[in-house]
Amino acid sequence: GSWGSLASWGALDSVAAAMATLGLAISAIADRQLYAYCNLDRKAKPPVLDRGLWHFSRHPNYVGEQIWWWSFALFAVARGDWLAMAGPFINSLVLAHVTELTEQHMLSTWTSKARVAEYKRYAKRTPKWLLC
Fold this sequence. Notes:
This protein has helices spanning 11-38, 60-77, 86-109, 113-125. The chain has 132 residues and is mainly alpha-helical. It has one domain. Helix 2 (60-77) runs antiparallel to helix 3 (86-109).
């Protein structure tokens, strides 16, 4: 099979490739930061991870994942397949709901009232994803 020609590569493909790379990088960095936080000594661990990418978003790993999925849709759009936008759109709606459920579960299972209070302060100053 042929991979096609590079002549079919356009500006949208370049944007999509950059988005895919950015999304993967954000996810990898956020997951690495979360792993490091989870493995801190209990006495040294702050109640909430609010450093690195977690300073800008309460779920930067989800942000990276969404950027990655939307980049795939952009590759398809570059070939005229606008219907491909439906997948990441539905995925985004589902992940928004899952994000809400995740936070509710965390807050309901944490035994430290101080940690819950700190997370609520963190939530007031930090968006769930980036803009909301």
